[in-house]
Structures are given as C-alpha cells and as structure tokens.
Amino acid sequence: MADLSEEDRLAAEWAALADETTGGGDTAAGGAGSTRVLNQDEIDSLLGFDQEAGGDGENSGIMALVNSALVNYERLPMLEVVFDRLVRMMSTSLRNFTSDNVEVSLDQISSVRFGDYLNSIPLPAMLSVFKAEEWDNFGLLVVDSALIYSIVDVLLGGRRGTAAMRIEGRPYTTIERNLVERMVHVVLSDLSASFDPLSPVTFRFDRLETNPRFATIARPANAAVLVKLRVDMEDRGGRLELMIPYATLEPVRELLLQMFMGEKFGRDSIWETHLASELMVTNVDLLAVLDEMTLSLHEVLDWKVGSRILLNASADGVIELRCGEVPMFHGRMGRKGGNIAVRIEKELPKQEIAH
Known about the structure:
Elements: H1 6-21, H2 40-46, H3 61-66, H4 78-98, E1 103-113, H5 114-120, E2 125-132, E3 137-144, H6 145-155, H7 174-195, E4 203-209, E5 223-233, E6 236-245, H8 246-249, H9 253-256, H10 262-265, H11 269-280, E7 287-289, H12 297-301, E8 318-323, E9 326-336, E10 339-347
Antiparallel strand pairs: 1-5, 2-3, 2-4, 3-6, 5-6, 7-8, 8-9, 9-10
Helix pairs in contact: 4-7, 6-7
C-alpha cells in the first residue's frame, strides 16, 4: 500500500479523535464514521475554546498568539496608582459638580487594540477627544448613554430616587452636549492632577464626537490601555471609559515602570555623604599654560633637535591654570624654595560644558 500523504494522515487523525470523543461507534447518516463532520461545539473543544469563560475566545491558544504583541498594562505598575488617585479625586469633584451623592469605582484596567475597542463602543455615546499637551498626543474619553442622561437629569434639577428618562434613537441636543462637555472638563482636570506627582501634564479638551469614525486618534492595530469607571448617583449613573494609547504614555514610560512613587523622589543620604566625602579627597591634575600659539604644519615639520620656540609670555605675565579643558584660575609665575610656583590671583567663572 502506498504511503498516505500528509493531508490524508492529518484527516485520519482528526477523524479518529472525533470518533473517540463521540463514543467510537457513531457514523454519519450517509457514510462511514471516519468521514463524520464535527459540529461547532466539538471544534471549540478541540481548539481549547472555553465556553464557560464567556465565549469570547480570550482564553484560547489562538487568541493568545494573536494578542501576544499587546503590551500588558501590569508592566506599568504606576498606572494603577495614578488611576486610583483619579477615582478618589473624581468622587470629590463630581460631588461638587452635581451637588449629589456620587460614587466612582474602578471596574477594570486592560490592554486593547484601538480598532477593536472603537468597534465595540455601544452607541449612542459621546466620545471626547483630549490632548496631552506636554506629551503631544491624544486620548479618548467615552461617556455612555446612561451616564449622559443621568448627568443631564441631575444638572437640570431632576428629583432624587427617580431614574433618568431615556429617549433613544435621536441625536443629542446642544444642551446635552454642553452639559456633558462640562463634566468632561472636570474629569480631565482630575486626570491631570492624578499624573502630577509622577509628571506634570495638562489634558486639554479637543472635541466631542458621537460617531466613532471621527474619533480616530491612533492606528487600529495600535495598543492602548483602557480604564473602565463606574459613576453611581443613587438610582442613576453610568459608565465612563478612558482610553489612552501606549504611544501617548511613551514619554513617561520610564516613570510608569517604577514599583512605587518613592523611586522618583527618594534620596539615599548615606550614598550622598559617601560620594561627597570621596570627591573632596580626589586628586585632579592642574595644567599651568604659559602661552598658546598657532603654527602651520609646514613650520612644525621643519623643527629639528635644537629648534627654539619663542613664547609671548613675560616673566610677570598672567598664566592660566586648567583642569583638563576647563579654565580654573589666573595667576602669576614665580619661585618659592627653589621650585617654580604659581600664585593664584583670580578665579575664572565656571563654564557649562556641552555634552
């Protein structure tokens, strides 16, 4: 018998595995058991698709390979500290903004691809594009429909204990857009303040969009960090989502890699004292420059043993003391105890050396 091809061998192995899964004796309605077609549940089981995990495929090996290029936000420990500060500051500022009992909670921090997130935004919603001035890049703040109507209801004097009325299927009015924009300004101010201990940054409101296509601030495949916040005002509330591309955070990536805030401001006084004491006893070489002149290469090549170089320095002329290339002092040459000496007369101003 001729050897089976690679495709036939793989098909036989899949058929045998499917036959074992179904009990080994079932056959298709019109043929042998080796040609039975697997149903979707069996295919999902063979591929490691976890139905009980929600059916989204995130736990499968294939999705793990697809998302292997994503940056895990857990590699940036300081992000959790920043967003924890944001939640505490927003709880206070939104209470002052709405004059109501507001509770802000952090639901989830995750890494997503920008295009996937943009396609998953439940509409209608308001998408606020903001710019990080010092980082010269953009971010996205998404306010869902429930929070929009709740904020409008609270700011316009709606009674407590009653759910906000929702009229779906119509565009947002100018009043609703203006009220939500005021809330976005409050959130962006708190976001700037939450980053202040790490790196001063100003988040400036840019524009408000209702169509996700007009809120594109990065390439669809670019990675981003997504923060989901829940805002509750007694019986009213909604979700607030903050999406910051990793390209926006790149200028402060080194600061976000810190394990705790003290790594930025901490000082080791023992090491500072030791370094200062060692510097004070370090030996340095000083050069006494009598004179400098510029000669052509032709003249230098004509030098022979016994040639003389005439300097313009006089016996009481001013000479310069240098440490390396840095001029340090001016002084005058003399003699002391049979040795040539230099008496320092003037300290030269320190010059900054360009790196």
